[in-house]
Amino acid sequence: MQVNFYILSPQHQLMTFVCQLVQTILKKSSSNVLIFADSTELTMLDDRLWTMDPTAFIAHEIYQTDTTNRHTPPVLISDRQDFANQFDGILINLTAKALLHSNFEKLLEIIDPNPAKIEQGRQKYRQYQQYTQQINQQNSVNTTLTHITLQTFHIR
Asked: Of all helices (H) and strands (E), which one includes residue 31?
């Protein structure tokens, strides 16, 4: 499992960066993508994914209920933590919550450049660090657990 932190510079807008990141993921990976956001951001995110480019859009759906009996689009957006914890693809977390004990393949934490969001990002990083140490200690005893890596990228 891998956790990447993307720390945006002031000239990068959060929603624009998220849309660009989703496009890149879809080009390079066959994994499904879940964008986990606060309920106040869902509509804005939904609009941006449909209208981010005048000649293109990112097919997606707001997750409401279990979609196991029908076709699932490559990108889902949701504010439901229970669904985020069960998701096994690439997860983009836009909330203030660290997503520990989740099944994701890769977690991308996007940190907006305002002071409050940067502090939330620091707190989440510390939580993942502590969780990583616990998992890595357990790994020395139980080799069936996965290794967790943390990486940080500054987007300028």
From this structure: none
